[in-house]
Structure formats: structure tokens, C-alpha cells
Amino acid sequence: MKKSKVFWGLCLLAIIFYAVVQVMISGGILDMYYQSILIQMCINIMLAVSLHIIIGITGQFSIGHAGFMAVGAYFSAIATMKLGLPFPVAILIGAIVAALAGLLVGIPSLRLKGDYLAIATLGFAEIIRIIFLNVDYVGGAAGMVITNLSNWTYAFMGVFVTILVIANFTNSRHGRGCISIREDEIAADAMGINTTYYKVVAFTIGSFFAGVAGAIYAHNFFIIQPTTFGFLKSFDILIYVVLGGLGSLSGSVIAAIFLTVVSAYLSGYPEERMIIYSLVLIIVMLYRPTGLLGTKEITSLFKFGKRGGSKV
Amino acid sequence: MEWLQQLVNGISLGSIYALIALGYTMVYGIIKLINFAHGDVFMLGAFIGFYAIARWDLGFFPALIIAMLLCAIIGVIIERVAYKRLRNATRIAALITAIGVSLLIENTVIYFRGASPEAYPEVLSNKSISIFGANISSQSIMILGVTIVLMILLQFIVHKTKIGKAMRAVSHDPDAARLMGINVDNTISATFAIGSALAGAAGVIFGVYYTRIDPLMGVLPGLKAFVAAVLGGIGSIPGAMVGGLVLGVVETVVSALGYSLWRDAAAFVILILILILKPSGIFGKNTREKV
User: Where in the cell is it found (chain A) (predicted)?
Assistant: First the structure.
């Protein structure tokens, strides 16, 4: 009973936040620059949270997340630009195709562990990118021109649904199964948990929301190119999850927000930005390998002596 | 005899991959870390060789030796500063640190000299030699010769010297090696030094052979060399050599068949097939997981 109160309270808070920003946008207080940073922030949160379910919850080390984002971006772009479908349908198509790609990649590669899995996902992401590079239907290396359809409402809805689904998944029976795999796969197997099934489920859900993020990303800029979705993008997403704390949903959200703002301010100095990024990454790993929040959630910081409730 | 020529091209490319893959496989064999920064040590080697040849007017061999020495030092610094603290950390933390070091090296180089590519000066005379109707450049024979000499040297170090014995002992069981009085830290540093020196040599050879270097050149060859190491069986030195050569030949054949844009995909398809079908690689040993 108490849990659901917290849940609805946070939902309400999210909707109020959305309304305030929407009023500020229609009132002209937030100009195009801030709007685009806000949308970028939402995209990064979605990517971070969707990778969080794979790495943070299930403990499967995937460094090819940009590949699924690329699938979502390209298939939603095909849906709007070539087939003339409405944008929400296109997002759904992009997400479903990305989820299918995740399923296809996940079934063979999730038999692997640790480093091998990381390299295999990296390889799959590169293969996906090279396929898009070589298909002339989507523009090849020159990229695909897309009309701008993303706005704050779509981006916010995307984040809201992503966090809602993944937070509830984590607290469900399936989520606990995934966490047990992260803690000790052999023990989880011995307790009768179908580890392969849960790993594939987590991977597919993660890919689905990476697809949503990709769809909104594709329609936010006027062009998408295969080079955007290289492994540097995957590393970017990885950095959000790792810095926020492996296993902490709110941590990855906070890291995504913080790093989006930082990189927006440092966008005039790309080299310095990357040097700072990499130094921060190394220093955090050396001195605080669990990331900023560890496996804790921000909500649990306010409740001493109790387990953290559900979050939105 | 175009096929013979393609084969020689493939072997030249493959020997570069093999040199990089040796460093990967040795480091992985000894501390179970995928050293993502290895491809960037290769890049640094190419740049050190470039400056040695273009600025100081040195010949190919002095440049090669300088690049190898400096890369060995860089490798040891990377190991001492970044990886040493992570011996007992989780695999994910180590891997992410390696990615961080890789990004740091790339962007520091870009910061100091810009991202523009550099044209390698011609240091080796490039004559065509006709063998069985195939035109083979004297450069590729030279490169092949250097690679073979380095590999023989490596085999000698690993199998005939005291430090090589220590390296094999540590990769087999670090705790037992420490009990036997082997200085594990120094042995790991030596492994990094040797691996990085080979990567530096590969960088100079790559520069001479392909004549174009840039600060991000290490990323893709680095990944492909890792594929070569996995293909040969990670941790196995002959495996890395064979894996590198096979990968180079496969890539050249894919290009020669007219699918040059798919060349990069070929390496990753090989990787995934080998990981799914035989994760221990060609020369790898099957290890059983202990609970």
C-alpha cells in the first residue's frame, strides 16, 4: 500500500515536471538551444537506462548498445520517410525491430561470459553499422535525410515509459531473477532460475528501449549517418551507466543528465571534453569502482533503515 | 598469378595484425585483461617512427628500434599507473579502465597535434620483384622478414630466458609463482613492455607499408588484432601469429572479391563464429569452470 503511494506520487511529480517545462517552452522561456539540450538529455537517459538493465541489473557486459540504437533510428526513419507512417507508429516499429535485433544477437552471444560477451556485442554492433553503411536504400555512408519530428513531449514520454517499465521490471519476480544472475550465475542456475531466458529477456528489453531512443534521436537531427553509431557512441552510453553506478537506475539517470549538460557546455572543445571524460572514467574506476551511487538508488538515501521503494 | 599477389598482400597485412595480437594475447594470458589501449600503443609507435624518420632523418631500423623502446616504456607506464591497482578489481572495472586509457591516449594525441593524417616518408626502396609472374614489392618482403625475426626473438625470450620462464609461470598460476619467489609485478611489467614493443614495431611497419597514419588509426587494427588473438586461442603465442595471418588473408580475399566495403565486417563475423563455435580458438585449451 505504501509502495504504491510512493509510486503514484513520483508519477504525479513527473507529470508536473513535464507540464512546467511544456509551459516554459510554449511561453518562449526555453529557446531552441535549451529545448534541444533537453531532448538530447532525454535520449541519453533512455540509452543509459536501457543499458542499465543489461549491465547493471543482469550483469551482462554489453558494449555494443549503439548498434541497437542504430537499428531503431534507421527503421523508424524508413517508416516515416519512405512509408509515410505517423511518428508514434515509427517509434514503435523502430523499437520492435531493435528488440528483434537484440533477440537475434542475444540468443547466440549470451552463452558467452564477461570479456568474450563484451567483444561479441562490440562485433555485432560494428556489423550492424557496416550493414547500414552498405545499403543504398538508407543512403549508405552519406546518410539519410529526415524531417525533424521529435519534440519535448515525445522525448519525455519516451523517458517516462522507459523508466516506468524498467523500474517495475527490476522490482518484479523477473527482475529479481536477473539480479540473482548478476550476483552469481552458477548459484542462480542451481536455484532453478532459467539464466539464459532471463538474460535474453533483459537484453531484448534493453534493445527495445535503445530502439525508442534511436527513433527519437533520428528525428531530432536532420540527418543520420552510420558513423554516428560507432563504438564511441557505445562507450558514451557505457560511461553513463558506469559513472552513475552499476546497478543503480537513478544513478545512471543522474549521470546521463550531468554528462549531457557538461558535454553541451564543452561542445566547443571536443578534444578537451574527451580528455576530461576519459580521465574521469579512469579515476572513478581506480578509486570508486562501483560508480557514484553503487547499487543504491537515490530514493533510498532518504529512507534510513528501510529498503528502497519503487521509483519512477 | 593475381592470387599469389593477393596472398602476399594478405600475409603482409596479417603479419601486422599478428604483431599486435601477440601483445593482446600475452597480456590477456597473464592478467586476464583485454588491454583496449594496445591499439593506441600501436598508433603511438607509428607516430614515434614517423617523427624519427621525418624529423631526425633516421633510417628504417633505427626508427623501428626507437619506436619499440619508447612503446615498451609507455606500456609499462600504462600498466603501473592504470592497471596495477586493478589486479583484484572486477573484470568490468578493469575493462572500463582500459577503454578509458585508450580514449585518453587518442584524445591527448589529437589535442597536441590535431586529428589530421600524416604521410609517412618513404624509407625503404620499393622495387617490384617478379616471382612466378606475381609482382611482389621488396617492401612487403622486408616487412615479412622483420616480422619473422621479431617472432623468432619472442619465441626465444618466452621459451629460453629466465624472464620468459617467469612469464609462463605467472600466466599459469600467479599465486604459486609468487610462492616460488618470482616477482609477479615485475614479470607483468615485462610482459607489457614486450607486448607494447611489438605493437610499436607493428606501428612503424604499418606506416611504411600503408604510408598514411592518423591518431585514430589504432582503433580498428587494435580490435581486429584482438579478433586474431581470439581466433588463434587467446593466451597462446603461436595462436596469435596464425590468427593474425589468417585474418589478414581473409580480409584481403574479401577485398579482392570486390566486397571491400564489407572488409571490416568479415573480421567481426569471424569473431562471432569462433566465439560461438569454438570459444577457445584454434590453439586454445579448453578450461573447465570451477565453482
Answer: Cell membrane
Contact B264 A279 (CB under 8 A): no
Task: Identify whether A21 is part of a domain.
Answer: no
Q: Would you call A107 an interface residue with chain B, using a CB distance cutoff of 8 Å?
A: no
Count of structural domains, chain A = 1
Q: How far is A272 from chain B (nearest CA, A)?
A: 7
Q: CA A256: distance to chain centroid?
A: 9
Q: Testing the interface with A: which of B87, B111, B272 to mutate, by most A Cβ within 10 A?
A: B272
Q: Is A285's Cβ below 8 Å from some Cβ in B? A: yes
Minimal Cβ distance to A124: which of B32, B219, B272: B272
Report the 3 state secondary structure along chain B.
CHHHHHHHHHHHHHHHHHHHHHHHHHHHHHHCCCCCCHHHHHHHHHHHHHHHHHCCCCCHHHHHHHHHHHHHHHHHHHHHHHHHHHCCCCHHHHHHHHHHHHHHHHHHHHHHHCCCCEECCCCCCCCEEEECCEEEEHHHHHHHHHHHHHHHHHHHHHHHCHHHHHHHHHHHCHHHHHHCCCCHHHHHHHHHHHHHHHHHHHHHHHHHHHCEECCCCCHHHHHHHHHHHHHHCCCCHHHHHHHHHHHHHHHHHHHHCCCHHHHHHHHHHHHHHHHHHCCCCCCCCCCCCCC
Q: Does A5 fall in a domain?
A: no
Residue B258 lies in a domain: no
Please list every residue in chain A whose beta carbon sits closer than 8 Å to the beta carbon of residue B243: none
What's the domain range around A91?
37-230
Interface residue A276 vs chain B (CB under 8 A): no
- B238 in any annotated domain: no
**A307 pLDDT tier (thresholds 50, 70, 90):** very low
**Would the CB atoms of A285 and B96 count as touching at under 8 Å?**
yes
CATH code of the domain containing A178: 1.10.3470.10
Q: Which of A108, A271, A282 sits opposite B97 (nearest CB)?
A: A282
Does residue B283 sit within a domain?
A: no
| Local confidence band at B290 (pLDDT 50, 70, 90 cut-offs) | very low
CB nearest A286 (choices: B85, B108, B279): B85
- What is the total count of domains within chain B? 1
The partner residue sitting opposite A246, judged by closest CB among B92, B111, B227, is: B92
Pick the residue of A183, A195, A279, A286 with the most B CBs within 10 A to test the interface with B by mutation: A286
* CB atoms A111 and B85 under 8 Å: no
Please check whether residue A208 lies inside any domain of the structure.
yes
pTM for this prediction: 0.85
Question: In this predicted model, what pLDDT tens digit does every residue of B88-135 receive, in sequence order?
Answer: 777 778 888 888 899 899 888 888 888 888 888 877 767 777 766 667
- Residues in chain B closer than 8 A to A126 (CB atoms): 223, 264-265, 268
Q: Is B108 in Cβ contact with A275 (below 8 Å)?
A: yes
In a domain, B179, yes or no: yes
Q: Residue A286 and residue B104: Cβ atoms within 8 Å?
A: no
The verdict on residue A4 lying in a domain is no
Query: Nearest chain B Cα to A140, which residue?
Result: B261
ipTM confidence score: 0.81
